[in-house]
Structure formats: structure tokens, C-alpha cells
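Bit of a strange request maybe. I'm writing a small parser for C-alpha cell strings and I need a real example to test against, not something I typed by hand. Could someone generate the C-alpha cells for this chain?
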Amino acid sequence: MCLILAAWHAHPDYPLVVAANRDEHFARPTAAAQWWEDEPKILAGRDLAALGTWLGITRDGRFAALTNYRNPALRRAQAPSRGLLVRDALAGIAPTLKVLGHVASVAQHYADFNLLVSDGRSLGIHESAARRTRRLAPGIHALSNHLLDTPWPKVEVARDRFRAALEGSLADDDFLALLRDDAPAPDDRLPSTGVSLEWERLLSPVFVRAPGYGTRSSTLLTVRRDGAARLREWTWNEDAELAGDITHAFRVTLPPGDGDGSAD
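Reply from user aminoacidic:
Good idea to test on real output. This should exercise your parser:
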């Protein structure tokens, strides 16, 4: 997952709204979002190479999503799949900060990552490159392949359009339009992450198109205060054409109370 926009208790009717793009090599086998047979409470896409995932939600209101931290110098070829961290966060029952505390204790075994976790009551993040775990306040949070809210051009553009979509009718087309934005950033605003200038350009749009690599799927997740939830996933082929469109409407059991989600 390479771009996650999350509104946490930032909308009067929806405590959680997420719009996200997953960027990955097209050769890596993947299953579309579905309820898992081996973990029936989990709804998520699946990486069929390592059996983890990049984003998912459960029937008891748990949410988790991950982005890789881009720095080729820190690449670890033999490290376990970071998608297993998302799977384990969804499969568990521990509160947010306890989950992230455990993740922090094992993070050194993985290539660097950012992991968002919610138990339905609070939202938190572990940023392994910064060795930092924290609870997040209600609001709009944006995450790409650096630390949370790093002002990369794609992050700033997508966050502004995400906020506008939240202030509107929450139409799928508005969120999809921002996730399909393939305009590159100007060279003078490109980050320097250790890849070539050509790849900085290719990776700079919200929707990535590169040789053998790019945005494989876009996800919109909404959870309403009454527990009504909906996950829509669009999948894309190597030509950036629509290859699949699936919607899951379901109910989650939200924690009691009507607070701002800041309690753990």
C-alpha cells in the first residue's frame, strides 16, 4: 500500500473513512478483497505470495493498513513480509496500543514500514523508521512511503481532494477521481528517497504507472456510526485499465459510546 487517506472521527456520521491505493509489482499474485476462509472475520485483499495483506477490516470493527517506507539503502531481501503484520493486527483482539507495542518489539526483523491500527475505539500508528508509536487524534491523516503526513506532493494533493470529498456527498466517484490522479509532481518538488530521478518521477503521482509496477488496486472504506460498513475495491491491470470492481456491504460491531475515539 503506497497511499492511505484516513478520516478518523472527522465526519459527523462516519467515524472512519479510508481511501487508499496499493502499488505493487504486477507479477506478484494477489486475490481481490473477500472474507477469508481461514480468518472468517477478516475482509481484505490478499497477497498470495506470503498470505498477508495491505489493508483490511473485521466484523468487530478492527482496521489495519500498511505502507512501506521507501529507502533502498534499508532494503532487506530476506525479511518476512510486512503484510503479515496487518494480518496479525486484524486477527487479534488486543487494544490498539498493545498491538502496536508488540509490533514495535518485532519491527527490527522487517524492512521499514508504517502500520495503522484501530480496534474501533482508537487509531494509532507505528513508524518503524522513526521507532515511534503513537495514538492519533481525530482528524484527517495522510500516509505514503515516508512518515505520517510528510508533505510529499501526492500526499498534499490527495489530502486536499479527500477533505473536499468528505465535505460533499461522499460519492464514490469523487474518491475514485482523486485515487486515479496520475499527474506527476514537478521536478523541483520531488522527494529524494534514494531511487533514481526517473523513478522519483514515476512514483510521484497518486496513481502510479511504471514498467511492471504500479497501482494495482484502489479501496474506499466507510464505517457509519450505526455500524453499517462498506468496502469497495477497484483493481487495475498493467495498462491502468479497470480489471475488477467489487463491493462488500456489511455490519461491524462498534464499541459502545459516542466519544471521539481517543480512548484506548
